Amino acid sequence: MIMRPKTAEQIAKFVIWFISILVVFLLFFIVAFILIKGIPTLTWDFLTQNPTDSGRSGGILATVVSTLLVTLVAVLVATPFGVGTAFFLTEFTHENKVTRIIRFSAESLAAIPSIVYGLFGFIFFVIYLKLGWSIISGGLTMGVMILPTIIRTSEEAIRTVPKAYREVCFSLGGNKWQTITRAVLPSAFPGIATGVILGIGRCVAETAAVILTAGSSLHMPTSLLDPSRTMAVHFYILAREGISMERAYGTATLLIIIILAINLSANMIVNRFVANSK
Question: What mean pLDDT is predicted for residues 191-200?
Fold first, then answer.
């Protein structure tokens, strides 16, 4: 029996809607479950004190600072290289063997498991460069890890800029650099910012690569060469070793809140930038 096209279309719509609603439900269920378990733990002392007794008591201030520092180092390292590579692939060269190799390398890096990045960072940054378990080692490793994301999203954002923008800038006497900085970059900024935001989210939530490079010290870091423990690593250790599930949920809750705040703030900035540029 042949199904009528209208019936097939209705079934397809139902399946698509069902899958979409299921995904949203799962997201809200997971987030709500963690928030319900963790919000009672978010007291002032928990947020402003350093962890003690392997995390059984005290707060998570040192882990919050460590997370922000590792993420900052990673973004400062990856953003210039990622955006620069994207501009090279789109504005300074034509499609050839070199560009195909670069894109293949970026796609291959994106497919590598995080634990492999951790092993690379441990061997190269921690041992070979003798940086030890430190914020700088973790940040550099995470910078390499988020580099493919920034390259691909930035390249796609630059490609969406109409060629007319470049032609107008050239017709007004602008050179290549002026065209990129004054015409292409402002138009592609929202897409580039999206790639950076995705990279920040991955840095904040990463565990395997950070624990092998930044370490798991509970002390408040005083320099980039100090070992540290990020919030994701702290949450993993508390839950994995059964130290304190209550504090593990509290850490996970704050982690979700920070990621949500970063995404909302970044979206507001991007939207305001787009509105002002029109």
Answer: 86
